[in-house]
Amino acid sequence: MTISPPAKVKLTSDDAFKVLGSGIDSCDVSADIYWENESCFDYLHQMKALAVASESEVAIQFPGTDLYAMLKPYGRKGHQWIITNNDFELTLGDWLEPKPRPSAMIRIHSEALWRIGPKECVNLLREIFSKAGAKSLTIKPSRIDLCVDMTFPVSEWSVNLIPFRVTRSQYAAPHFCNALMTGLSIGKGTIAARLYDKPLEIKQKSKKIWMYDIWGIKEDIPKNLKIIRTEGQFRREVLKELGIDTIDDLFDHIEKLWGYFTQHWLKFADNPGHHHTMRRVLPWWEMIQNSFLGVQSPTPLIRCKAIHPLKKQLFAQTYGTLTSLLACSHEEQNVPIGCSAELTDLVNQFQQSTNENGKSDFELEVDLMEKRAKRARVYAKMRDVHQQRKAQGLPSNIILPHHLGQKKWDSRN
User: Where do the domains of the chain lie?
Assistant: First the structure.
C-alpha cells in the first residue's frame, strides 16, 4: 500500500468522465468486548463525575493508552460514556462481558478514514481497547458508506438522469439549492444511493477541502465540469444478508460489495422505458462499476490541510476580539481616537487582561489540554507514516506534532 500523495492531475475540458478517487467515507462499527476487570470503568466513572459536577465535557487520557479525548457528562441509549475526539466518537457500556446490546458503538470520522486508512483505523481501535484492558474484541460494521468520485460534464448533470436508472428501489428524488441541482437520492432503506456535487457540498457544508489532495487536483475545476460523488450506503441488516458479519469480512469482500451495489442494485442504462434486456449500461456508469479500488491509501498530508483553515478562522476571530478589547481599554482611559497603535499593544492588552481576570499558568494547561483533547488526532500513526516515507526516500513534508506530554493527567484534581 502506497502512502505517497497522488500525482497532481490537471483537469482539461477533454476530461469529461475521469475517476479521481474511491474509498470508505463513513464507517460506524459496534464492538463486543470481554474486559479483564473494571479498572477502566472506575476511571471513566470518576471522570464522568467531574464532568457532571462541572456540567461540561472534560479531557481524559483513555486508560493505558495515549488516546486523548473529551468525555461527555451524559451517556446515550444505555451506554454509560460518550468519548470523542477528531478521529472517533465512542459510546461505551459498563458491562464486563458482551450482552445483546453491543459493548461499544464507534463512529470513525471521515478525515481519519482518508488520512490513516480504514484498516489502520480498525487496528488502532483494537490496540486502544487491548491496552485499556480488553481480553477479546469482535468488531462488526453497523453502517458503511462506499464512494467513487469522478468528473462529470455540467451538460449531463440534471434531473434527466432519473429515468435512466435501473434499480431495485422505487424511491428516487432530486435535491436543489434554488434552481441548482445538487444531487440525487435513490432508495431509503437498508441500501441507499446518493449522487451529488462533492465540491459544492464541501463549500456549503463539510468544509473538507483536503479532499482535493485525495483527488490530486487544485480547487480550480473547469466551469464545464463537476466532480460527482457516487455513494452507496449499507446498513447492518443488508451487510449480514450479503455474508458480511465482522469488519474483517468487510475488508475481505469490499470489492464484491461495491459490485453488488453497482451491478445488481443500481445501474444507469440507455433506452429508458424499454425492457432491461434491451438496455445497455451507460459508459460512465461502467467506469463507476470498475473503478472502486477496495484498498484506500492513507494520505497523511490531510492533517495539515484540515488544520490550516481552522487556524485562519481562529486568527481572524482572535484579531477581531483583541482589537475590540484594546478599543474598550482606550475608551476607558479616554485615549484620543486616531492615536497611533502597534501590534504589540494587542499582546500587552491581552496580558494585562489575563492578570486582571486572575488567569494562571495552571488554568492555561487545563484549558489547553481540553482543546488538544477535543481536536486530538492519532499522532502515533502519523509518526509511523513519517518514518515509512523516510525509509522509502520520499520527501517528508508532514508537520509532525510534539508529544502531548508524559505526565499523568488528572483533570483539575
Answer: 18-25+143-290, 302-391
Task: Note the pLDDT tens digit of each residue in 340-360.
Answer: 888 888 888 888 888 888 888
Query: How many angstroms separate the CA atoms of 282 and 362, rounded?
Result: 64
Residue whose C-alpha is closest to residue 94's, from 110, 76, 111, 81: 81
| Whether pTM exceeds 0.70 | yes
Task: Note the pLDDT tens digit of each residue in 28-81.
Answer: 999 999 999 999 999 999 999 999 999 999 999 888 888 889 999 999 989 999
219 and 209 in contact (C-beta within 8 Å)?
A: yes
- Going by the DSSP 8-state scheme, the letter that residue 402 receives in this structure is P
Instruction: Identify whether the C-beta of residue 82 lies closer than 8 Å to the C-beta of residue 76.
Output: yes
**Nearest-angstrom CA–CA distance, 294 and 272:** 31
Pair 18, 150: CB distance under 8 Å = yes
Residue 55, C-beta contacts closer than 8 angstroms, at least 6 positions apart: 73
Q: How many CA atoms lie within 13 A of 375 on its CB side?
A: 12
> In b/e form, how buried is each residue of 327-356, taking b as 16+ CB within 10 angstroms?
eeebeeeeeeeeeeeeeeebeebeeeeeee
- Cell numbers for 55, please give them: 456540567
* Closest of 404, 390, 411 to residue 4, by C-alpha: 390
The partner residues of 392 in beta bridges, in order of sequence, read none
Mean pLDDT, rounded, of the chain? 85
**What are the DSSP calls for 308-322, one per residue?**
HHHHHHHHHHHHHHH
| 206, 111 Cβ separation under 8 angstroms | no
- DSSP H or E segment with residue 256: helix 254-260
Integer Cα distance of 306 and 110 in angstroms: 12
d(CA 251, CA 249): 6
Residue 25 · residue 194 · CB < 8 Å: no
| Widest distance between CA atoms in the chain | 85
